[in-house]
Amino acid sequence: MKCPPPSRRPGYILFELVLALGIFAIAVLGLAKSLNQALETANLLRRDQIIRIGMRNFLEEVRRKPLAEMSTSAMDTTYGITYTSSTEPVALKTTNGSILSDIHNLTVVATSSFNEVPQEDTLSVYVYKPAQK
User: Fold this and answer.
1) CA pseudo-torsion sign 39, 44, 45, 47
2) What is the largest distance, in Å, between two alpha-carbon atoms of the chain?
3) Where do the domains of the chain lie?
4) Angle at Cα 125 formed by Cα 66 and Cα 99, nearest 5°?
């Protein structure tokens, strides 16, 4: 058996290897960037869920209090979120023209900071609180 003649272009295999490694490195960097973006998005969604659950819990806590104590504030030190509630009376008219009394607009505001960017979320509901006699 005869050996094949030597290649006329020395270093061609080395060039192919460098080119393949370059393409592989670009692909791996793209995948790493996508993974990083997915993790950041997951963290944002988790933080939003924590804020929503905290607002719902704070709202249920405040709704049970008497009207005079409904405007309050609380701090969640674990996540650095401040919950603040405020009430204001609402005058709603019925279809026959009478005004519904003892209805209030309860607003809960969650203030937090994520990556040095302040974020504010608001939740507003109507509550019926009859006047205490």
Assistant:
1) positive
2) 112
3) 12-128
4) 80
